[in-house]
């Protein structure tokens, strides 16, 4: 962790020094250096921003605070009711690579799971499509013959047009 701090400080200092160097070149008559004189401090600011976010994440603060909205009323439904029954705890999601697991009550939301309609049920609901069936047969043949060329497909061939 100390290496990240040293790297951030070195990059910010180096980028600001390069910006100062470009200012001295621009004042000597190199007009292109005016753009670089602005660009290097922007790079330093970007590194500073990333450094700040890394520190906040390491301390366990969320990067973005969720706005209070109607979904907070759903959280109130999770609290114990008048009967005194405790809610069932929600398991924590596995952490994403490079992040820490969210703390319960830290403002993180669970992802919304949307049920999907199975493909078979979707095709049964509509009329039979001969072009789709032909294409699926072609794909099945390609899967069964991985070394074959597409031009060797023995199925129905259509001419141009």
What does this structure look like?
The chain is mostly helical. The protein has a domain at 2-59. It is 51% helix and 0% strand. The chain contains 5 helices and no strands. Helix 1 (2-27) packs antiparallel against helix 2 (33-59). The chain is flat and about 75 Å long.
What is the SS-derived class?
mainly alpha
Return residue spans where pLDDT drops below 50 for at least 5 consecutive residues: 95-99
**Which oligomerization state do the chains in this entry correspond to?**
single chain
H/I helix tally: 5
Count of DSSP E strands?
A: 0
Straight-line N-to-C gap? 64 Å
Largest β sheet strand count, sense and barrel closure: none
What sequence of helices (H) and strands (E) makes up the elements?
A: HHHHH
Q: Share of helix among residues?
A: 40-55%
How large, in whole angstroms, is the Cα Rg?
Answer: 30 Å
Q: How much of the sequence is in beta strands?
A: under 5%
Q: Could you tell me the mean pLDDT? A: 74
Shape: flat
Question: What would you say about this model in short?
Answer:
The chain crosses the membrane at residues 35-52. Residues 70-85 have a biased composition (Low complexity). The protein is mainly α.
Essential attributes:
transmembrane helix; 51% helix; mainly alpha; 161 residues
Question: Which secondary structure elements does this structure contain, and how are they paired or packed?
Answer:
Elements: H1 2-27, H2 33-59, H3 71-77, H4 119-125, H5 130-144
Helix pairs in contact: 1-2
């Amino acid at each position: 962790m100390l290496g990240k701090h040293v790297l951030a400080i070195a990059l910010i200092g180096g980028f600001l020094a390069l910006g100062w160097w470009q200012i001295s070149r621009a004042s000597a008559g190199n007009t292109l250096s005016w753009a670089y004189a602005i660009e290097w401090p922007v790079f330093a600011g970007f590194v500073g921003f990333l450094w700040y976010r890394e520190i906040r994440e390491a301390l366990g603060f969320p990067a973005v605070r969720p706005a209070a909205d109607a979904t907070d009323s759903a959280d109130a439904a999770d609290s114990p009711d008048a009967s005194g029954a405790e809610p069932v705890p929600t398991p924590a999601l596995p952490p994403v690579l490079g992040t820490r697991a969210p703390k319960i009550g830290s403002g993180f939301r669970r992802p919304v799971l949307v049920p999907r309609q199975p493909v078979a049920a979707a095709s049964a609901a509509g009329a039979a499509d001969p072009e789709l069936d032909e294409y699926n047969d072609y794909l099945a043949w390609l899967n069964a013959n991985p070394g074959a060329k597409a031009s060797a497909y023995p199925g129905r061939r259509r001419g141009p047009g």
